Amino acid sequence: MRKLNIKNVALAVTIAVTAAGCGKFLDVNESPNQPLVADVKLLLPSGQAATAHVLSNQFGITGGIWAQYWTQNPFSSQYRNNDRYNLQPSTSNNSWAILYAGALQDYKRVIENAGSLTQHAAIAYVMKAYTYQMITDAWGDVPVKDALNEGVSLNIPYQSQKVVYDSIQLWLDRGLAMLNPASPNKVGSEDVVFQGNINQWIRFANTLKLRAYLRISAIDGTRAEAGVRALAGKPLLASSAMIQYATSGGNENPLFSEILGLGRTQNLVASNTFLDAMKENNDPRLAQLYTKVTWDGVEDTIVGGPQGDFGSSPDFDYSYPSAATGGLGADNNSALAPVVLISEAESYFLQAEARARGWFTTGSAQTLFNDGITASFEANKIGSEAAAYIASAPDAQWPGTLADQVKAIITQKYYAMNGWQTFEAWTEWRRTGYPDFFTLSVNQRLGGKFPVRLPYPETEANTNGSFKDVKHRPNSERLWWDIAE
Fold this sequence. Notes:
Pfam families: SusD-like_2
CATH topology: Serine Threonine Protein Phosphatase 5, Tetratricopeptide repeat
Number of domains: 1
Low-confidence stretches: 1-35
Organism: Chitinophaga caseinilytica
Mean pLDDT: 92
Strand order of the largest sheet: 1-3
Largest sheet: 2 strands, antiparallel
CATH class: Mainly Alpha
Keywords: Lipoprotein, Signal
Oligomer: single chain
Radius of gyration: 22 Å
Number of strands: 6
Signal peptide: 1-19
Number of helices: 18
Protein name: SusD/RagB family nutrient-binding outer membrane lipoprotein
């Protein structure tokens, strides 16, 4: 990982170019028969930055609210529709544009123009797979074939989510086949995730394959089991894959950048859903994830509100997301919060689930479960307190049946993802139904149902002739792999 040096102006260019109806990004292919090395070395980090921007900003905010880490501050109003489960198609326009016209176009051009820079192309394949998983987990059926062929057609077909997931594994296989730590054509600091460490990219790709196979475990268990078994013995992440940011120069954490753009208005506050669960476990991570306030005469208290209760007028202060997660508008240290693509804790929890299911045959599921908890405590800079928590917290105890083990793993994964992996936490809740203590938003407008997808963007409805095949769908309509009760 390294601090991001590609200016956020690249994202602004992406949005402006897309709005103007032109697919070119930075116009780097003026001479396609003589691609410049500099093009590839600029496009790779630009793509990584675009993927991380959406993951932390648009997806991160909605994910944080729908995963019930955060709720709308009653003293402000920016995300009331998120809390109502009432997002409109237009809210998806920018995130769709940044991912398709920005990130995916950048990865495509890296692959096409890499020449001898095979390791850059390999990383681009892996990041393409990662980005498409974000896209399909948000919207379901999405364009893949011809989606990045600019100007070919105004009728870009939508592929089923099953096809998208098959494609994700294909791109990961291609990337893994090309990744070679001994390659003479090195990747340098332009790789803003691992600074060109190819061994880490191999671990990342294998871990992403594991995540993608487990995602389909309920809908296609045979394929999932075969894919996971094929990963046995392969190197997996033992440290977090993330991008670091800076406090100035347009290189701030994307969530904090959003807050800055709103004049530092503190829209996000702690949700009682998460607080109540953590307090029942006497979880010390709580103090690292939220600010402390004085409540009912008691200082240094963490106070939240009921999910979606933004119509109330409390006479006390709520706790805010901490600067460590990028969500504290008054603290410039929020700019330094990383965007985590896959955390060390997530890697261990994925392995724990695979072992609990019997799809990995070595190691101990309980040990991997404990390793995930410990990694989360270390990420919150309180690693020395992990052992006591594991020994005493009700939700840290290892149960006897597979169903209860999966519940324990996903619940602890949920605790670990607060702030840094909110979209993934919401996605895993959709896959498994865990944690099982979510409450409906006080002001929900979805007929008593939880939101399980993002709305397709209005721009697709207006410009893609194939949109009639998917149509706008209610936020309560489940995705292909989502069959959790």
